[in-house]
Design goal:
Pfam family, one: DUF1775
Helix content: under 10%
CATH superfamily of the largest domain: Uncharacterised protein YcnI-like PF07987, DUF1775
Structural class: mainly beta
CATH topology of the largest domain: Immunoglobulin-like
Strand content: over 45%
Keywords: Signal
Largest sheet: 13 strands, mixed
Number of strands: 26
Organism: Psychromarinibacter halotolerans
InterPro entries: LpqE-like, Lxx211020-like, PCuAC_sf, UCP037139, YcnI-copper_dom, YcnI-like_sf
Shape: globular
Protein name: DUF1775 domain-containing protein
CATH architecture of the largest domain: Sandwich
Distance between the termini: 48 Å
Radius of gyration: 21 Å
Number of domains: 2
Length: 339
């Protein structure tokens, strides 16, 4: 079995080793899909011989690319970039280098506490199914370290690196465009709706922007036929980051604010993301949004998981998937920045 240097710990291994495995730094994911984008979550269960952890360092191996770490409140985030052993195609653009190491520092994770550190990344389509990816982790404390860097795969080593097994992608994956959806739970219907478990997502659209515009908007309808869920985050290759926002009247002024805790989706209800209300904000656009094209956004739900939704780009004043007009525009709103 081919080995690469990445840090994941299979759920099966945790189940077999019982409480002893909980003493190790592990990955929440036991499997990752070749050619797909996934969330890699390192679990840190303790400190260094009783001391609190102030720094967590994660090294990404060959076979993992286009990595984007998730910031943590109270921690400083830094990255180191380097060349890939093999270039990757990412939505038509060749990537020859990217983030290879992520460090969260300046925190205080007590020995008796637990926390998770997350990176979103793509798994190379050329990684052979059955490969074990190892992702070494270092914990730094005031007077010591916890070392999770052994990538031999040998039984009984005291410091195994977190690891995950690569599985084959579904038909059509392996070209740098897959997004890690659970194809058993997510499906697109004949009318273009996306169904993910109890959620049905319809009417996704965005608006065309000028070439140098820094931001754009995204809108859709989410129908929840099951238990309460929550839209916790969003991302897209079209922007540096995607935020969940709300626009509401504050006296006589329409103001916009970021929903840091995500957007609740009550059981049995439908929530509209639309101009003048809840919406997605594409911050730091990497290029103009062109009318008639389609923009893909990855939505992460608390229960339904990751879902990729296509947004049809309409006219600059579009009110829906077709072209239309509206009374308000972000250029006339006040962004309070309030949480």
């Amino acid at each position: 079995m081919k080995l690469l240097s990445l840090t994941f710990v299979p759920a099966l291994a945790l189940a077999l080793s019982g409480a002893a495995a909980l003493a190790h730094s592990t990955l929440a994911q036991s499997e990752v899909t070749a050619g797909a984008t996934t969330k890699l979550t390192v679990r840190v269960p303790h400190g260094c011989d009783g001391e609190a952890t102030h720094t967590v360092e994660l090294t990404l191996p060959d076979g993992v690319y286009n990595a984007k770490p998730m910031p943590k409140a109270g921690w400083e985030l830094s990255t180191e970039t380097g060349a890939y052993a093999t270039p990757y195609m990412n939505h038509g653009a060749e990537m020859t280098e990217g983030v290879r190491k992520v460090t969260w520092s300046g925190g205080n994770l007590e020995d008796g506490w637990y926390d998770e550190f997350t990176v979103r990344a793509a798994i190379g389509p050329d990684v052979t199914p059955g490969t074990i990816l190892y992702l070494p982790v270092m914990q730094y404390c005031a007077n010591g370290t916890s070392d999770w860097t052994d990538i031999t795969g040998a039984d009984g080593v005291p410091n195994p690196a977190p690891n995950a097994r690569v599985v084959a992608g579904a038909t059509g994956q392996g070209h740098g465009h897959a997004h890690g959806q659970d194809h058993d739970a997510v499906a697109m219907t004949n009318d273009g709706s996306v169904v993910a478990g109890d959620l049905t997502l319809t009417g996704g659209f965005s608006r065309a922007t000028l070439p140098n515009a820094p931001v754009g908007g995204g809108f859709l309808t989410i129908e929840n036929a099951g238990a309460a869920d929550r839209l916790v985050s969003a991302s897209s290759d079209a922007a540096e980051r995607v935020e969940i926002h709300e626009m509401a009247m504050d006296g006589d002024v329409m103001r916009m604010r970021k929903l840091s805790d995500g957007l609740p989706l009550p059981a049995g209800e439908t929530v509209d993301l639309k101009p003048g209300g809840y919406h997605l904000m594409f911050m730091g656009l990497t290029g103009a949004l062109v009318e008639g094209e389609t923009l893909e956004v990855t939505l992460e739900f608390e229960n339904a998981g990751e879902v990729v939704v296509p947004l049809l780009i309409g006219a600059p004043n579009a009110k829906g998937p077709g072209n239309g007009t509206m009374q308000h525009d972000h250029g006339h709103m006040a962004d309070t920045g309030k949480e």
